[in-house]
Amino acid sequence: xxxxxxTTSLSPVWLWIPAFIAVIVAVSVASAELQRFDHPxxxxxxxxxxxxxxxxxxxxxxxxxxxxxxxxxxxxxLNIDFVVSTGDNFYDDGLTGINDPAFQYSFSDIYTANSLxxxxxxxxxxxxxxxxxxxxxxxxxxxxDHRWFCQRSFIVHTEIAEFxxxxxxxxxxxxxxxxxxxxxxxxxxxxxxxxLSNLLKDLETALRDSTAKWKIVVGHxxxxxxxxxxDTKELLTHLLPILEANNVDMYMNGHDHCLEHISSTSxxxxxxxxGGGSKAWKGDVDKSGGYGVKFYYDGQGFMSVELDQMNxxxxxxxxxxxxxxxxxxxxxxxxxx
Length: 337
Ligand SMILES: *[C@@H]1O[C@H](CO)[C@@H](O)[C@H](O)[C@H]1NC(C)=O
Ligand SMILES: *[C@@H]1O[C@H](CO)[C@@H](O)[C@H](O)[C@H]1NC(C)=O
Fold this sequence. Notes:
- Fe cation 2 binds at residues 88, 126, 220, 255.
- By secondary structure, the chain is of the alpha/beta class.
- It has one domain: Metallo-dependent phosphatases (Purple Acid Phosphatase, chain A, domain 2), CATH 3.60.21.
- The chain is 21% helix and 23% strand.
- It has a nine-stranded mixed β-sheet. Strands 6-5-4-3-14-15-16 form a seven-stranded mixed β-sheet, covered by helices on one side.
- The radius of gyration is 18 Å and the shape is globular.
- The protein starts with a helix and ends in a 7-residue tail after the last strand.
- Bound molecules: 2-acetamido-2-deoxy-beta-D-glucopyranose (2 copies).
């Protein structure tokens, strides 16, 4: 009954959750250590839609507010079930504590549309690790804004899809070997080797045992990218083989402040970057670098995803709400993109 801890820690918050927010319920899984949360389907046909946004918390600046406005319009049109955040939630250095007003200025006061008053599932990015990392993980934040949900690594289960949220920052060597002037809050991560091997083992077990129609993995760092940071070599080595061996359909990330779509040459995985939540236009895309690159946009924006039993549709939007790129995936036939 490993999953019940989540119910206990979340239950006081239920009093605050309006009826239209799906209540998070932990369900127990014997086989995996990763905590699993059930997101009940509200649509009769159990189809699912959600937005994906990354690298955002800058108190509305760098077009964060414009992106939010367009997210509100798309979320309304699609009647989304939830929002996925790919991390770097608060710049430059995460939250200073649970009372940091940046939580309101960069989150609650920005994503104000009615259609965005849904559950937000957040992972941590490297910038979040530069503050009080445990603040973002503290369920007490749900008393300030009931949408907030953030853990290091966890699973969200829905009728047709399972989402595996993975804490990717501890994988990256340079934060440990060359932290420059940054102080990282590694509480809960050390000893690092054990943390990573446990995480990989638990993820592998959970992915292997999953019977979900769609398997979607979310992390902050890209596996594949032709943007400023590029591929994350630690994830290519340690994470990618597990994704490929377990029929993962999509890997979603931020970190590079852009929108991009890369498909794998050796598997069905689609690599989808949504890191355009605020500061963008880095201008240093690696034009030579990529095999399988289908789309790259250097500016701000976000992604929507619609899923049903047979089809997935991913749409990328810019700051004006223009559709930049569409990805259609289908179960049963080989992917034709
Ligand atoms: C905001 O978005 C517009 C349109 O893409 C762009 O021209 C402008 O440079 C962006 N502003 C910033 C600060 O990135
Ligand atoms: C994706 O599918 C929709 C129908 O659901 C179709 O209208 C659209 O043209 C397709 N787009 C691409 C890029 O295949």
